[in-house]
Amino acid sequence: MPILPVILWTDALIYLLLAVVAGFVWYVRRHEHLRAPWWRVAQTPAAMSSLVVLAVFLMLGLLDSLHFRLALPAAPGAQAGTAGTRELAYAVDVKSALDLLLASIANRPERTYSAPLATRAYAKETVEVQAGDGTPGKQVRDYPRLKYGGAHLQDPDRDWQSDVLRTAFRGLALALPIWMLLSLILVAGCSPRERLTARDFWREVWRGEAEVPWRSILITLGLLLLVAVPLVLLSARYHVLGTDKVGLDVLYLSLKSVRTALVIGTLTTLVMLPFSVLLGIMAGYLRGLVDDVIQYFYTTLNSIPSVLLIAAAVLVLQVYIETHPGLFPTAAQRADFRLLWLCIILGVTSWTGLCRLLRGEALKLRELEYVQAAQAFGVSEWRIMLRHILPNVMHIVLISVVMDFSGLVLAEAVLSYVGVGVDPSMISFGTMINAARLEMGREPMVWWSLASAFVFMLALVLAANLFADAVRDAFDPRVRVGGSKRFSREIA
Amino acid sequence: MYAYIVRRVCYAFFILIGVNLITFALFFKVNTPDDIARLQLGVKFVTPEAIAKWKADRGYDKPLLYNEKAAGASRFTDTIYFEKSVEMFRFNFGSADDGRDIAYEIRTRMWPSLALAVPVFLVGMLLQISFALMMAFFRATYIDFWGVVLCVIMMSISGLFYIIGGQYLISKLWNLVPISGYAGGFDALKFLALPVVVGVIGGIGSGARWYRTIFLEEVGKDYVRTARAKGLSEAVVFFRHVLRNAMIPILTGAVVAIPLLFMGSLVAESFFGIPGLGSYTIEAIQAQDFAVVRSMVFIGSVLYILGLLLTDISYTVVDPRVRFE
Lengths: 492, 325
Description:
heterodimer; A: 492 residues; mainly alpha; three-stranded antiparallel sheet; two-stranded antiparallel sheet; 4% strand; B: mainly alpha; globular
């Protein structure tokens, strides 16, 4: 099917980020002293387990960043002969690769709420009971059958339990061979490099004696598969995590939220990184008036309570969008622009911490012999900053980037609650929680949206935190980066 | 030392002017009052007369920085910048879009905010420090390890879930206290109990972990080794020497947060229906009331700068080695 690729602003930045990371990896691989701390990270079991989880989230996010518009099917009246010359028409709504993958669960909307794995709706409705002989029956208040959830069951009251259990067990049984296949690939791939027979390598892995903690990685993978495969099988027939107010599958919403969280967590730092690095190093190395001005600048920005600055900036943006409707033709573009703006303004409020750290480090480095030697040789100031200071503060930059990630993901949820987060039409953990919160008072309680947002967020943030800790310990355990601390203190 | 403090105060004042200029630019230059008026009156079908009237009612119909029509000093005072921004330095905030006096609202709403924020701050800090102390005392044992694991898990949970979980468990399931609301006098205790508990629990994860690193840093220092070499027991070393010295960075670090307690907490207050400054701010943001948001930005900055100032002063009081350059 022909498609028209659409590159949203955040997509472009994500591709750029990928390119930067790829370049960084290539650079690190060629330098022994840069490889060493990463090797220490690779030897930490907790870090590698969380890396597996993060990789899964990352894949979801990347799939969700490939946007395009599908071509509309030819009008039924169009003649076959003119089809080749006809202008292709594209659908208005922007889809992503993830949408296509999840089409089976995304395109099965129910009418409204339904509990996880339910076959009947959440609320009673008036349904018509058909009498056996085809005459119109009487009207009864009952829980109607769902349109899609468990629609294949003849008698849900009788078959539901056995069907769910059977499918789940089939999933568990299927997860095992997949896991074994992955383990086999690992052994086949790694044992020659380690100069071990497959059996010896496997024994080493299983006893936890391998240098890279393959055992933890495999266990994490196994647990993920044990959860994911039954989920996939069940989601073909049921709404595994229930549906929300407008009947959308909650599993679909949760998976789509991942991209928003990742974008906020990574692009925010990426957007402001050049400024904070440049200004921090300049302030520390050049000192004097430059230092005073830069310090004044970041103290001033820092003084404004970040939530309020974000709120003010988002209000400003809202006014801008309302008064310039021509710039944003589709809802997706508007939501995307708002997401980008949120990243920028979050970056503005959070870059000062890194800037201050870098200034302090540059102040220390400029007194060292190798910098003085460079000065004595008449190397220009900019060159010293670029060649001698910058490489030696990169570890601080790296640590603060990974440490900030989890705080930003959490901040998104709170900001969306305050009403200054992502666009209300954009699927994110914040909007999910916000929508679910309004239904707290219902009886029985609508808990599934909250629970799924909770589980997905916890998995993402916990993995990010553990990984960030390992990175910090490997690079410099003394650096105190408390990016998320101000947020939590101010908001909670 | 007094010269140092005076210099810091002057610097703080300069920063405040910077904040003032930034907010002015954000609210009046990037978005002109016309835009705001159009948004308030509904974007479509707005007549120029309606916008002019809206602006005149709220005093937005003057020039931004320089009034050519006026004479003398009022060329500068009869402008939006002077009336809306400079007046803030006198804590004259004008009125909100619904006509109420902002300064009055702030004065009355300050107390519920404090009633929630002060207990959360004090109890929370006490608990965090005790927990951190326990982990640091039993460092490199299973207690420490699982304590850190617990901290990391707790700080990975969004604050929203603590509130929702607390409301569900304590108010709905166990029916101990009302879900939300507020009343004056001693009735307030009933309404404040849950928010305080939730606020304290929500802060333990990151706080305890943070304080633990401070304690551990202190444990590694030379004077601790000396104290052990003297033959002091580990408990004495820890609680007499390490604890006291670690309190210096902990307390000076906490000082900056104290003035901000006035602002209340945005999310908790609006979740629990406490009529404090936090919920006032959120309501203003949701109603797009720029006058209130502007005032709260200004007050928040003033309080933060005050916190920085107090931090500077507390350093000089606590640690005599600080140099006044």
